[in-house]
Structure formats: C-alpha cells, structure tokens
Write a structure and sequence with these properties.
Layout lengths: L8 H7 L3 H12 L20 H5 L5 H4 L9 H7 L14 H31 L8 E6 L7 E6 L6 E5 L6 E3 L1
Antiparallel strand pairs: 1-2, 2-3, 3-4
The chain binds iron/sulfur cluster and zinc ion.
The site of zinc ion has 8 residues, from loops.
Length: 173
C-alpha cells in the first residue's frame, strides 16, 4: 500500500477513513510485529525461520505464531490456554518506528489519492466513464516528467493506470 507500488480498491477505502482512526489502526497493525515477518502464507520468514517448526502443526498452531503484534488474537489465546511460541530471532517493531512508518504511509497515500483524483478528472474531461470506456494518457500528476497511461473499464468505470517512469505510480481499481 505505498506510493510507487500497485494499489487496489482496499487502499482507497483505507485512505478515505477518518485520519485519526486510520493512523491508530495502522499503528496497531505495525507496532509489535516482528520486522522479519513476511506473511504466514510463506514457508519461512525473512531470516529463514520456518513457521511450522516454530509452532508445530495442528489445532491452534496459527495462534502460537509470535510474528505479529502480541495483542493480535490475545483474547482467543487466553480463552484456549494457548501461549505464543518463542523465537530467538524475534525483533519487534517499536511504537516510535510504527508511528514513523505510519506517517510515511499516510503522506504517500494522500499523495496517491490526489494522483487518482487527477487521473479521474482527466478521464471525465475526455468523456471516458462507465458505459464509455477507453484508453488515454496525461502528463503524470506527480510531475515526474513521465506520461500516465490509463484505461477506463466500460462495465464499471474502474481505472487501471501506470506511469511511464519506472517505480512511479500504478494502480488498479
Ligand atoms: S518472530 Fe521469528 S519466525 Fe517470526 S518473523 Fe520474527 S524471526 Fe521470523
Ligand atoms: Zn510519474
């Protein structure tokens, strides 16, 4: 969910939330998470610890994973009498780091929202919308000097866009 990467509609939902609530939600998600965590869909984390070797398989194994904030599922663990597994390589993100990361996310997401709005404005001015989709382009609203190429889907008016500058903006709605 960052400027310069692909976006989807969940990002748009997130950036239209109340600013304080949005900050608090994000801080809660980031603070306490191990900085080596890359998602439980992977076999091992960024420093090579195999998740299942840590938690074992079977009932409650996901609840034992120590990689996310200890508050996550804390109540459920308490109800079931399950404890977090110990990991010698754990390195939790501090509150100060989470606050800083959230500040950066919010700055980039607000910037991204303005880029999306500019692209939609350009499309509307050219008559591209639901029922009349098509392709067009405009100077990239980030002022990177590149060209933002976009398509508007006729079926729902959703936009796919990508800037010609590498690592600038791209998103799908
Ligand atoms: S807690 Fe351990 S297994 Fe989980 S991400 Fe951190 S280092 Fe890897
Ligand atoms: Zn650009």
């Amino acid at each position: 969910m960052q400027f310069g990467r692909s976006w989807d509609s969940s990002c748009v939902k997130m950036i239209t939330m109340d600013i304080t609530k949005r900050e608090q939600n994000l801080i809660r998600q980031i603070e306490g998470r191990c900085r080596h965590f890359n998602g439980a869909q992977n076999k091992c984390c960024k420093v090579g610890v195999v998740y299942l070797e840590l938690t074992g398989e079977g009932f409650g194994s996901g609840l034992k994973l120590p990689c996310t904030s200890p508050d996550t599922f804390a109540k459920r663990r308490e109800e079931l009498g399950i404890k977090l597994s110990e990991c010698s390589k754990i390195d939790r993100i501090t509150h100060e780091e989470a606050v800083q990361e959230v500040k950066e996310i919010i700055i980039s997401s607000d910037r991204m929202m303005k880029v999306c709005a500019a692209a939609h404005g350009d499309a509307i001015s050219k008559g591209l919308k639901e029922g009349n989709g098509g392709r067009s382009s405009m100077p990239c609203p980030t002022e990177c000097g590149g060209t933002l190429h976009y398509t508007v889907a006729s079926c729902n008016g959703h936009m796919h866009a990508q800037c010609s500058t590498q690592n600038c903006v791209s998103w799908m709605e």
